[in-house]
Write a structure and sequence with these properties.
By secondary structure, the chain is α/β, with parallel strands linked by helices. The protein is built from 11 helices and 21 strands. A hairpin with a 4-residue loop joins strand 9 (178-183) and strand 10.
């Protein structure tokens, strides 16, 4: 494991500390976390660095320099991440650097298109923080999510894809026949075609410890990470909808027992899924009216979950091998709201769906605005697996090539 050369001083309750930890983690930057509420010497160090003020996060770098309450943009600059493009015009601008966006970038650049890829967080998307990919073809021994992401990124750069990191896209517009992409740092770029590959975010519980143990006992994908717990005595699943119940049933292939923690007094999954849970011999145990208050661990691994009975207030610690959180997903599409057609949940409608709903003659993966395409988890109907995201990125690039040739 790479030695940490950055130290982040903060506290568990500090939202800016959580944001900085998340940013560094997404960029695969190793760092040491010190909670100043648990370490008085560290608290004195922070006071000394800030002229007697207790300001967190205080982030100290290898060369002795430090940043206090930095924005993500300030952190990106300090880390040497590229946040500004060389030009203002590109044949294709891809928004999102997960498997779909990176694959489309490789295909586009390899065919001679001038490609700019903009990613707001870490390259690789959700795949980048997955413990391992055991079901991706071509890797019989599996591959870590981080290594997979680094390989695909390296491949994109080899074909000349220009990549911006830690840059948010705020809005899209059209002007003079071109698509305009406006970023949060005040820049804007224009292109003939855009691919939206912004992915979707798993909803978080936002309780202490959750962020700390993601990938180390706290997970959001049973297909991806369930096999790592084969033979476990117990796995906890948090949620009561279709995803939670179905993924919980899937996890019984690996654990002797799956405990489903449900905040309400009933499951909201389909009747078929509920019947599977309740059938005799089921390995799924359901605990209703149960909230999760915190995740606790040791040696960077999850060790226990503090739960609370919503009706009685009783506190109890569970000690599962892992916890899988399934309380919904939300597409990262807020910036195109009202600009493109989406379904009721915000997932982008494309191609065939538009023909049925709005009688629009769109290319495969093309959105309701000609020249703007979508692929991966942000697209309505996507499967939300790495292999399918790669496939969608490749397929979308074929449609984009057709669109560019027509133009």
């Amino acid at each position: 494991m790479t030695e940490s050369k950055i130290t982040l001083y903060g506290a568990y309750w500090c939202p800016d500390c959580r944001r900085s930890k998340k940013f560094l983690g997404e960029q695969f930057v190793p760092f040491k976390w010190i909670d100043i509420e648990q370490d008085k010497e560290a608290e004195q160090f922070v006071l000394q660095k800030n002229n007697g003020k207790r300001i967190i996060p205080t982030i100290v770098f290898e060369d002795g320099s430090f940043l206090v309450e930095p924005t993500n943009a300030e952190l990106a600059k300090k880390l040497g991440l590229k946040t500004e493009a060389k030009k203002t015009y590109y044949d294709l601008i891809i928004i999102g650097g997960g498997p779909a966006g990176l694959t489309a970038a490789i295909y586009g650049a390899r065919e001679g298109a001038d490609v700019l890829l903009i990613e707001r967080s870490g390259l690789g998307g959700q795949a980048g923080i997955t413990v391992g990919l055991d079901n991706f073809p071509g890797f019989p021994e599996g591959i870590s999510g981080q290594e997979f992401s680094e390989r695909v990124t390296q491949q994109a750069r080899r074909f000349g894809v220009e990549i911006l990191q830690a840059v948010d896209v705020e809005k899209l517009q059209q002007e003079g026949g071109y698509h305009e992409v406006y970023t949060s740092d005040g820049k804007h770029y224009h292109s003939r075609a855009i691919l939206l590959a912004t992915g979707a975010s798993y909803r978080r519980l936002d309780v202490p410890g959750e962020e700390d143990y993601i990938g180390a006992g706290v997970h959001f994908c049973a297909t991806c990470d369930g096999p790592f717990y084969k033979g476990a005595t117990e796995i906890v699943v948090i949620g009561g909808g279709n995803a939670a119940v179905e993924e919980g049933l899937h996890l019984t292939n690996f654990a002797e027992q799956v405990t489903l923690l449900v905040r309400g007094d009933k499951l909201t999954a389909s009747q078929v899924a509920i019947e599977k849970v309740n059938q005799p011999g089921s390995k799924v145990q359901v605990r209703y009216n149960t909230a999760v208050d915190s995740f606790d661990g040791q040696d960077s691994k999850l060790k226990s979950i503090k739960t609370r009975d919503i009706k009685t207030g009783k506190i109890e610690d569970l000690h599962p091998a892992a916890a899988f959180v399934f309380i919904g997903q939300q597409p990262n599409t807020e910036f195109i709201k009202g600009y493109l057609r989406t379904d009721d949940s915000g997932f982008i409608l494309t191609g065939h769906d538009l023909k049925h709903i709005n009688a629009l003659d769109a290319l495969p993966f093309e959105t309701s605005v000609p020249g703007i395409f979508a692929a991966g988890d942000a697209r309505h109907g996507s499967v939300k697996q790495v292999a399918s995201a790669v496939g969608e990125g490749a397929a979308a690039s074929i449609s984009i090539r057709e669109f560019l040739r027509k133009g």
